Structures are given as structure tokens and as C-alpha cells.
Fold:
Amino acid sequence: MIETPTRENRILAAPVVIFLLAMLGFPAVLDLIYSVSTVSFENLRAPELSGFGNYRAVLADDEFWSAVSFSTRFGLLTAALETALGLFLAVFLAPLIQKRFWLMAVLMMPMIIAPSLMGLMYRLVLHEFVGPLPYYLYEWFRLSPSFLSPKSAFTTLVVIETLQWTPFTLLLFYTAYTAIPGDIREAAQVDGTRGWRLFTHIELPMLLPTLVVAFGIRFIDGFRVFDNIYVLIGSGAGGSSTSLSIYIYTAFFKAADIGKALAASVLLFAVAFGALWLVGRLLKRRAKT
Amino acid sequence: MTCKTLWGKYLLGAAMSGALTLTGLTASAEVTVLGWPGGPEETALRAAAEAYNAKSDVADDNKVDLLFFSRDGFFDKLAADLAAGTDAFDVNLIATYSIGRYAPFMEPIDLGADATDVFGEAVLSTMQFEGQQYGVPTDLSLHFMYYRDDLIAELLSDDAAKARYAEIAQEYLGTALEPKAPDDWTWEDWAATALYFTEAVNPDSPTRYGTVLQMKNLLFNMMIFQSLPRAYGADWMDADGNITVDSDAYRTGLEMYRMLLDAGATPRDSLSYEYAEANAAFGSGRVATMVQWNAAAGDLMNAETNPVVADVTKTVAPPSGPEGRFTHVHGLGLGINKAAPNKAGAEAFLQWLATPEAMQAYATAGGAPGLSGAALDAVADARPDLVPLGSYASQYGYVMNGATSGSALTVYELQAKAFTGYWGDVQSLDEALSEAETGMADLLK
Structure:
């Protein structure tokens, strides 16, 4: 049995731990202090402790819950669409990509663009007077749809997010799909399993861990969405496109309600940490069994 | 060479370079001015500072040195700096809508009696808070009514068009109005004109839209909108400090915008439009009128950038209402930091900046000061666009009661959310006004 060199591990890990404490721990502590303080840009250096009033204000704020609802719906829907599309494209295009791998570079391109630039790009693309999409819709069909009105903005944003990030799930699924050992497929085919049955009974179960990871990563990314939405339509008419990140940003920079913004961010952190801890526990339990 | 020797050399070098830097600073940066970066304001300020430093009667220890940093979060960074008592600059930028936030950390300034002749009372008031002058108004922003002169001329000369116009006005506004010249428009005349030039309302319209409204949830769009309710008597607060936003005047303005959106007189995506989108729409030639910032005039009337509309675009002051004719006005300016190391030098520079000589240098280098009298005459040939700026500001300029308070920007943000909620059918008019009133009462108490 190999003994764990605990002391050496601690020494080796110390620089990373110190770095993390300095870079993440200090702001986190500061956030905690500000979240229980009456603080503005004018008294950043001398916040007045005021208890949990900011937390009560956040929890009693309808806009906070509306933002939570927006982020959750946005995160779930985009994660589901990106995962399904990525899986379909990976399986469908795998033979082609295997022969011409440069295609993968082309497919990855949307992912390389910064989300804020993506928002800016669609601000132009969807603009009725300079954008190609409204131009041809009007020229060909006499249609001038409203892409960014409160009623259609959510759908437009979901489509934009899905178009940008499906390449990410495609990459994950393609890697996992091509990593399935060929002899497993051959054995299944010898037993007469082909096509859809081969996919659902052999390949898909083997892709399941990747599917969970892809969905999880995309949900987290979709839930914390900020840049592209903010650049495209801000917080929307009447705050109708306020994600949780935009809520925190608006409370901090626009309303100068720093305590409330940080209380919301601490709540977000607590929920995210709780979810991660839960997933970690589940994975550990599964590994044991 | 040992480590110790290397460190010694390094420390000696660093100390020498630090000493040289400090010496350099003390020799040149006697009055440090924090300006608005990255636009014509920066270019103009550089020109003015250069002219000031070249004056023979300015002592070496009162020469001006300029300081610029990013526009991102500028006002928040400035608020934090001022509150911390920074002495990194003697003079700093202020804006009309944020004077109240900075006033506790700044010194009032006496610009002298001549400043009224240079700028006029209305323009000077954009830099005042609680009756005291806090800065020199270096740049002015207000609104113009942009319109297509060719289309209006055609409408005014065609009897059949006039009859159709009256029908449309009767149907949408309840009164059979007659077309008028833009300088005589009331807000209702403008609305009727916008409807007449809308394809969805009048299939024979030469333009697809009668106007383009900036309805995005953005504080600057509220500044554009408020000239309309103001013409009907709107204000944020009465003399006793009661919030008066839930008024007939605001209702009239909000409902007019909503009616134009619902009628298709402005693009359906107007709820995501701001300055750039509106300019693009107007510049396409498919829009007949637009209320927009004066800053757009140069671009829209430039045949190289907007060949379709440049030659046929004209401007007037925004329309009038029962209570008069108004344009929102705000300014950027420069004032004195309370913790300034060289207050006397800073005051001398700002007093010079408020003279015709300084403003001429500033305006010809690209700045947009609101000038009057001889100061305006001196730059009128080089900057014809500044002529209406000064006169509109003095005749029609207004600042809402409370709009220079420390919470003014937040009030605009609040109104933007509430009012766009009504325009976007996210909430009712009553809910929007109630939300604005409750929030404003909290912010302006």
C-alpha cells in the first residue's frame, strides 16, 4: 500500500492555495462585508455594518425573482437545445469530420467570438435598416418582424445563444463519440444490432457522462448570461430581459445599491456552491457503487 | 556580480527614476485637469490647455496638465476618487445630471459677471447646484427635431395630401389638424405628421415610418422623451418636494409614444433602439422625422456619411405644447476638487476658460459650448452648428426639478424601466407611473 505523502502535498499545494486566497478569498470576504453594510461609491472604504437588511431587500424584490426565473428558463432551454443539437451534429457529421478534420475548425468559429461581440453583431444583423435578415424578409415577403420586442426577445436570445455555443457541445460529443472503441460497435453489429438500435442501446449510454457534463456546463453558462444580452437589448423593456447577472450589474452600477447587489451575488454564490456540492456528493456515491 | 550587488543597482536605479519622475511632475503638472476622454471634448480641452499654457502671464507653477482615463464607469470611479479625498487632480469633469453627487466633494466657483454674457443664464445653470456655480459649462447637449424638408414641402403644397392628413389626424388624435411648417408644430402636429408619413397608416406615404423613437430601456432615452411631457407641464417634483410624475402631462406623453408605436409610425423594434439605431433609420431615407441629440446633426447632414438624407434634412427646436416649447439640456463642464492641491491655480484656469477667448479656442477645436452674444458671433462662421445650440438652450432649455441631485441618474434609470415597461406592454400605464413615483419618492427624499 502506498502511503499518501500528505506533508509534501500540502507544501506543493501551498502556492496555489495562497494565490487563490489572495485572488478569490479577499474579494469574497469583501463581498460578504459589503453585503451586510450600507455602502455606496462614496463610502467604499468605510462601509457601515447594517445587518441582513440587504438580503431581506433582495429576497423581497420581485425583480430578483423575475431575474432568477429568466436565468433559469434561459439556462435550461439553451442547455437542452445545445446538447441535443451538438449530439445530433456530432453523430451525423462524424464520418465527414473524420475524413476532413478542418471542417471542425470552421464549425468552431462562432464559439471563438466574444459574447459581447456576438451581441453587437446581431444588433447590426437584426436592425431593420442595416441588417441583412430584415432586409430580405421585407424584400421577399413584405415582412418586418420584431426580433427584439418584449414578446419575441427571449426566443431571439435563445436562438443566438444556441447558435454560438452548439459548437462547444459538438466538440465534446464528437470527441466522446470517436473515442468509443471500434470493437464494441463491431461486436454489436455481429450480433445484428445496427442503425438506431446501435445508437440508442450501445453508443448513447456510453455518451451519457459527456451528455451530463455538456448539459451542466452549458446550463451554468446560460444561467449566468450577461454580455450578449446586455449589448443587444440591455435589460429589456420594463426589465423583461433581466438575467440574474444583469440584475446584479444594474443594482451595483446603475442604481448604486452596492449592498443589495452584493447580497444578491452572495445568494447566487451560495446556491451555486450548494448545487456543486450536491453534484459532487452524487458523483462520489456513484463512484463508490 | 552577486545578488546583493544586483539588487543594490536595481534599487538605486528605481530610486533615481522615481525621483526624476517626481521632479518632472512638479515641474509640469501644477494644475491637473481630469477631462472627458476620447471624443471632441478631449481634443478641444487639449487645444484650450495649450492656449492657456502659452499665455505669458501664466506662472510655471500654474500651467495646466491634462489627465484622461477610460469612459467606462467614469462617473463611478470619479465619485469614489472624490469621496476618498484624492489630490491626484485639481479640476475634474462634471455633468449636469451628476453635480449633486459630486458637489459635497467640490468647491463652488465664482466665474465672474462676464460669464453670463458668454454663456447665458440657462447654460450656466446646467452647472449649478443649490444655487451655487460648480463649474464652467464646456459642452452642451440638447435636442433637435430633425425632419425631411422635401417631404414636408410636398405635403404643404398638395391639397389632396392635406385632406388625407386631416383624416388621419381625426382618426388617431380626435382632431382634424392641418399640416404646418415644422417650426410651428405642436407635439400633436408632429404626431399627425408622423402618422401621415407612415406606410401602415397611409399606404401612399413616401416613407415607411413617420418617425423613429428611441424606446430602449436606457436613461438617455428618457432625456429625449421628457421634452414632450414637459411641454404639457410635467416636472419631477413640485416646490414642496412632492413627486409629480403621476400627472396628466406624463400620461399624455407616454400615451402618445405608445400610440405611435402601436400604429406602426416607428419601427416595431424601437424598444431596442437608441442613438445609433435611430440615426441609421433616419439616414436610410425611410423615416420622415426624428427627435434626436444635437450631436447627430453633423453626421446626418454630411453627404458623405448620409448621402440619402444629407441635403434634405433640416432641424428645428422640439415642438411646443400648452405650457410652452422645451428641450432637455445638459452639459459637461469642469469644476474644482475640494482636495485640490492648487485651488488658486485651478480657479484661475477655470475663470480664463469662461472667457470668449478661451471658448473660441475650445469651440474651433471641436468642443460644443452653448455660447451667446459676442462669444457666439466670434465662432459662428467656423461652427455654424453652435448658433442654434446657444439660442435653443437659452430659449427652450430646462432642467427638471431634482435632475441635478445626487440621485438624478438613478431616477432616469428608474423611469426608463417603468416607462419602457408600459410601451412594451409589460405593465399598464398606471403601474408604470406608480412604479416611477414610488421609486422617485425614495430617491429624491
